[in-house]
Specification:
Layout: H1 11-19, E1 25-28, E2 36-39, E3 48-55, E4 72-78, H2 84-94, E5 100-105, H3 108-123, E6 128-133, H4 151-163, H5 168-180, E7 182-190, E8 207-210, E9 221-224, H6 228-240, E10 250-256, H7 262-273, E11 281-288, E12 297-305, H8 310-315, E13 333-334, H9 351-366, H10 368-378, H11 383-396, H12 406-420, H13 423-442, H14 446-461, H15 471-482, H16 487-500, H17 517-520, H18 526-540
Parallel strand pairs: 1-13, 3-4, 3-5, 5-6, 10-11
Antiparallel strand pairs: 1-2, 2-4, 7-8, 7-12, 8-9, 10-12
Helix pairs in contact: 2-3, 3-13, 4-5, 6-7, 9-11, 9-18, 10-11, 10-18, 11-12, 12-13, 13-14, 14-15, 15-16, 15-18, 16-18
């Protein structure tokens, strides 16, 4: 694949700075460590409306920052949730006495990072509410529904109400009503190609995918390649299974997932117009690139059931650059708020603990390519990079850690992971280590402390043992530690747990819940595999 880029590592940063030629937008001055795009002229007498997520979905999310829509957007790396600190920075930078609303797409990483930032902001005295959008009907209502392009309906209506001066409670109530009445489905002919290590297509020329998300994961169903009318009919047929049965009126949002040409999008719109459900559509947004998946050759359709006041909010004036022609201006910065220290404890010495931590850090760095290769088969291909980033950061601060105090060491590792590591794994492990550190203060048993932290992780993440996550390796290992087993037995239990994930195919949590049994068969969960290898390394010391 050929791309108009300079450096694959700088794609997100340079893309954001290109957007910031709009004189109505700005960024926090600790960019690019924290990627927050916000309105330059903030009105803190109004509720701030904040959204965001991984990059690669442009113009979402930063392209919808502007008067009448988002106050700020928090941007992660390609397909990776932004950090807790980035979200917290956006809240502190924009929220006044009336507070702020976080609009979250229903993906584990976004829920965890935005949720933890909301909790921290509340502790600092900010009024924060959240609404989670799960508009994807492809998986049914038995599992967590993903957030797709229908999320933009929530952005627009919440932004309108904030501009009108409504209270946080009023905006939250309406935003939740909007989220509850959106129904979306996606269909693609070919996946989006990443700027680094683009993999070959899993689809032949005679295949298409129905019911896919926006992170390159496989669709719920592989279908035969057909003409535009037939493909649109299949998407509508699936969508209609979940629409209200009454003769309701809807707004249609027709989204180009990346590389579909404008004339093809118009052909697809013509195909939709021929359907029965088209008679119930009162307004349309698009067809346009609204929430993409890099250069995916696909589309999604979202229907919002109209309720009182929705039309006024959806049709009111809004200023985002994605919706109008703008002037070209200078890039500016805004002072970034100061955040609490990552490492609150003084460094202390324990040679055994330091050597163990360095060995583990070096091991996960060396695993980057292998774990990414596993994750390419069952996820978005960045698990190894996530763990490697953690290892590099721990090595960077290795001489500054409180090794002599186990509780302080665990809590510090938790803070480092929360602030430095993207994706859901970093936040989940941060939650685990932080709780383990606090538990260790009360009872000096590392197994019990880690088991307590694991339970807290499960409370936030929702998964449990047997659902094909890193928990399948952590749970038996920590139980063995708690029972006083030696490290070689602990490592053996972790390995058995990781290997068991190769046979798990029916899950309701995590990325695996979106994949078919055929996609999962014989492939271990990359997080569980990493845990097993870490314990095997510790056993070898």
């Amino acid at each position: 694949m050929k791309f108009f880029i300079n450096d694959a590592q700088e794609v997100v940063n340079e893309g954001i700075e290109g957007l910031l030629t709009d004189p109505n937008l700005t960024k926090l001055d600790n960019f690019p460590e924290v990627k927050v795009v916000l309105q330059k002229e903030l009105d803190k007498n109004k509720v701030a409306v904040i959204s965001g997520g991984g990059s690669g979905h442009e113009p979402a999310h930063a392209g919808f920052v502007g008067k009448g829509m988002l106050t700020a957007a928090v941007c992660g790396d390609i397909f990776a949730s932004p950090s807790v600190d980035a979200v917290l920075s956006a809240i502190i930078a924009t929220a006044g006495e009336k507070g702020c609303l976080l609009i979250i797409k229903n993906y584990t990483g976004d829920r965890l990072n935005f949720g933890l930032a909301a909790e921290q902001a509340r502790e600092l005295g900010y009024k924060v509410e959240t609404v989670t959008v799960g508009d994807d009907i492809a998986l049914g209502q038995e599992v967590e529904q993903r957030g797709l392009a229908g999320t933009l309906f929530v952005h627009k209506i919440a932004g309108h109400l904030a501009e009108e001066g409504k209270s946080l409670d009023e905006i939250l109530k309406t935003a939740q009503k909007v989220a509850d009445n959106i129904f979306s489905i996606g269909l693609s002919l070919e996946e989006g190609k990443k700027f680094q290590n683009p993999e070959s297509s899993r689809l032949s020329d005679s295949e298409a995918e129905l019911g896919l998300g926006i992170h390159g994961e496989p669709g719920v169903k592989t279908i035969a390649m057909e003409n535009a009318n037939d493909l649109m009919s299949k998407a509508i047929e699936k969508l209609k299974e979940y629409l209200p049965k009454e003769n309701e009126k809807f707004v249609l949002l027709m989204n180009n997932l990346g590389s579909v040409t404008p004339i093809e999008m118009n052909i697809l719109l013509n195909s939709f117009q021929k359907s029965e459900i088209a008679r119930q559509v009162a307004y349309i947004v698009g067809p346009s690139q609204l929430m993409t998946s890099l250069n995916m050759s696909g589309f999604s359709i979202s229907l919002l059931k109209l309720e009182e006041g929705f039309i006024e909010a959806l049709t009111s004036e809004a200023a985002p650059v994605s919706w109008f022609i703008r002037k070209f201006g200078e890039i500016s910065s805004m002072e970034s708020p100061k955040l609490p220290e990552t490492m609150p404890y003084k460094a202390s010495k324990n040679t055994q603990s330091k050597n163990a931590l360095k060995a583990v850090a070096e091991e996960v760095i060396s695993l980057e390519e292998d774990l990414n290769a596993i994750d390419e088969k069952v996820g978005d291909g960045d698990a190894g990079s996530t763990f490697a980033t953690a290892g590099k950061k721990l090595l960077e601060v290795a001489d500054k850690l409180p090794y002599a105090n186990t509780s302080e060491l665990l809590i510090t590792i938790g803070r480092i992971l929360a602030r430095e590591i993207g994706g859901s794994s970093g936040v989940l492990l941060s939650i685990m280590f932080t709780d383990a550190g606090n538990t260790y203060k009360k009872e000096s048993n590392i197994g019990k402390a880690l088991s307590s932290g694991l339970q807290k992780m499960k409370d936030y993440g929702g998964a449990k043992e047997g659902e094909r996550t890193m928990i399948d390796a952590l749970q038996p290992a920590f139980t063995a530690l708690e029972n006083g087993e030696k490290i070689d037995i602990v490592a053996k239990k972790a390995r058995q747990g990781a290997d068991s994930t190769k046979e798990i195919s029916n899950t309701k949590f995590g990325r695996s819940s979106y994949l078919s049994e055929e996609s999962l068969k014989g492939v271990p969960d990359p997080g569980a595999e990493a845990v097993a290898i870490v314990f095997e390394k510790l056993a070898s010391l």
